[in-house]
Amino acid sequence: MKLHYAFLVRPRTSLDSKTGTWRLSRPVLDKSKCSRCGICELYCPDVCIVAASDDYAIDYDYCKGCGICAHECPTGAIEMIPEEM
Amino acid sequence: MKEYYQDKLFVPGHRFCPGCAAPIAVKAILKATGANVILVSPTGCLEVCTSPYPYSAWGVPWVHSLFENAPAIAVGVEAALKVRGRRDVHVVVIGGDGSTYDIGLGALSGMFERGHNILYICYNNEAYMNTGVQRSGATPYLASTMTTRPGLMEPGNMRPKKNLPAIALAHGIPYVATASVAFPQDITRKVERALNIVGPKYIEIHTPCPIGWGFDTALSIEVARKGVLSGLIPLYEAGPDIPLKVRPIRKPEPVTAYLKLQGRFKHLFLRPDGEQWIAEIQAIADDNIRRLGLASQPPTQEADGIATDLSGA
Amino acid sequence: MSFHSKNMAVMEGSMAIARAVRDARPGVIPVYPITPQTHIVEFLAEMVANGELDAQYIRVESEFSAASVLFGAAAAGVRAYTASASQGLALMTEVIFSLAGSRLPVVLTGCNRQLSSPISLQPDHQDTVLLRDSGIIELYVESAQEAYDTHLQAFKIAEHPAVRLPVLVCVDGYVLTHVFEPVSTLYQEQVNAFLPPYQPQEYLTPENPLIYGAYTDDQTALEMHYLTYQATLRAKSVIECVAREYESLFGQYHGGLIDTYRLDDAEVALVAMGSMVSTLREAVDRLRRQGRRVGLVKVRSYRPFPTEALRDALAKVPAVAVLEKSLSRGFQGVLSADVKAALYHAARRPLVLGLMAGYGGREMTLGTVDEVVARAYQAVGQGCVEEDCVFLNLRKEILPEGIAQ
Description:
heterotrimer, A: two-stranded antiparallel ribbon, elongated, C: Rossmann fold, 2 domains, 12 helices, 39% helix
C-alpha cells in the first residue's frame, strides 16, 4: 500500500475489513418462518443482510452478531446461535 | 457476494460498535440522496468508524476536516459546486450531537442564517460518544454520563436538552424535522422531502448507543421505538411555510418503559428519591405531548408548537 | 508580452492586493472582517457587486469558518482566497494545520497585526509566525508593488503539483495595507498566461468518489507528516522559479526565498522581513555613505525557511543583526532563533544578535538602525553577543520600579 500524496482513500475499501471476526453469536434464518417483510435488511447496521431469491442472505464475512435482526424479526425466524470459539 | 457491493453507496466492513444505530440511519439517508451527493462529516463516531485509513465504507464522495467546522466545509463545497455549474449535486452534512449542538453551533448558525442550500443531518446519540460518553448539550435530563455521574450531590445530568430543532426553526430555515432509527422509512421520506427544498434544512435522527446508554446490542431499535412512544422523542416536521406535522402516538407509554431499558438511567430506579426524579422526566414527556399534540391528530387547540421554554424536545 | 505593457497608478496597498486577487480569478472568497484587512475584502465586495469579479463571495460568521470554507472549496476543486489578521489568523490556526496536512492549495493574506493580549491594532509579525509550524508557505512583502506581484505568484506556488500547500502572503498592517504607493498592475491576459485556471486531477465529485480526511494510526501518520514536510522543502525551488518566471515575463523581481542588498563586503548584515526592509535599504545606503560596511538580507520566504540561501549569503559576514517583530515568550525572538538554527552547522558561524525592533508596533527609525549597527560592531570587538534578545526603543521610564532590561 502506497500513500496517496493527500492521503485520500478510495471508496468501498472497508470491504477488505472482515468484521465478521468480531461476533460472539451468529444469526441463523429459518426460511420456513420468513415472511420476507424485509425488516431485518432495513435494520441491519452492518449492511450485511441482502434479499435473496426466496429469503434473506446474511453475509457472515461482516456480521458482527449484534442481534438486532433476531430481536426485530416479527415472525421469530432468526435465532442467535453462539459461535464456536 | 463482493460483486453485490460494487455500486453500493455504503458497504460493510465499517468499525461501528455492534448494534450502533448510526449506520442504520446512514442507510436510510442514502436511499434518499442517491449517488449524486457529497457528504461532509465532523469528527465523531461516524467519521472514525466509516473511514479508518486505508479503509472507507463510503461509496460516495465524503470529506472530514475538523470537529467544529462541518457546516463551513459544506458551505465551501456548495460554493465550489456552483462555480463548477453543478447545482444538481446534493450537499449533505451528517454529524453527531457533540459537533452539532455544541462546538459547531456557530458554524451551523451561520450556514442557516445565510440560506445555503445544504441539508444538515444530526445523528443524535445524546453525548460525546466517540471520546467515551461525556455529556453534551443534547444529553437528556438526569442521564448518567462519564461527566455527569450520579452520586450524593446530583442524580446525573441536571440540565434539560438544548432544543436544537427550535433553534434551527428560529433561523427561519425552510424545513426542520426530527426522526428516529426506529422508523427508517420515515427518515428516507424526510430526507427526500428536504432535498426537494432549496435552502438550509435540518433533520435530527435519534440514534441510541448500546455502549453509551447501557443496553444489549440487540435492543437499539426497541430503545429508539420506546423513546418515541414515551413522548420524550417527538417526531415532527415544521417550517415557516410548512404546517406542523407530527407523528402521532396512538397510545403513549409511561417514560419508565423507555428508561428502564437503559443503564444510563438505572440509578433513578435505585435511589430512594428516584420516583420524584422519574416524575420530572414524565413531566417533560407530558409537556411534549401537549405542546405538539402528539396523542391526537391533527394538533389540538392547546398545542402551541415547538419553540417554547426549556422543556427538552 | 513586454513588461512595458502595464498599468501604473497610485493606489492603497489594500487595493493592490484586491486587484491581484481579482486578476487571479478565485471562485470562492469567504470573508470575515478584522482590522487592518477590511479594505481588501471591501474592495473585493465592490468588484463582485459590479461584475468585475465572478466569485462566490461568502460573508461568514467567523475566521474559523472562513478558513473552513477555503477547505471545502479547494477540496471540491475550486480556487479559493481569504484575508485576515491578528486574532483572525489565530482563530484559523486549527484549520490552517488541517489545510496543509490535507495538501489543499489556497491563498490567504495576513495583514500583520499584534496578537492580544493586550489588544492593539499596531503591526508586528506575531500573528503570522504563529502559523510557522503548520506547513503553510509564508511570504513577507516589503511594498505594495510586491504585494500585488506576490499574490499572483502565491496562487501559482500553491497549486504547483510539487507543492499543493496553502500560501500566506504577509503584508504589514497599516504600513502597507493603508498607505498609497505607485503600483504597476497587469492586464488580465498577461495574468492568464502566467496563472492558468486551477484544475486538480482529484476533487470531490460524485463521478469519482473519494474520501478526504480518513483517520490514521501509528502505522501511517508519520509517513503522512513526512510527505507534507517534503512538500514544504520542495516549495523552496518552486518559490525561486516562480519569482524568476514572473521577472522574465513582467520585469518585477523582489527576491526569491531571500533578497540581498550590498552584502558583498559587509561587516554587519541586517536581517529582516516585511515593510521594514524598504526602510533598511535606505539605512544601508546612509551607513555606507558614512563608511560603514553594512548590508541587508531580506527574508522573503519565512516558511519554508531559506536555510541554504542564508548560509550562502552570510558565509563571510562577521556579525548578523536580526531585526525582529515577533517573540517566542520564554525564549527569544522568533526570526533570530530560526536564523541561529540555520547558521549553526555553517562552516563559519557569524555572531548573531537578536533585537526586538518594531515588535509591539514600536516605531523603528533610521536612528534605531544606527544603534543596531553600533551594537553589532561592539559584539565583533568583544567576540561575543551578550544577550540573546534585546528590546530596542523600550520606554524604561514607564516601567514599574525594579524592572530593568
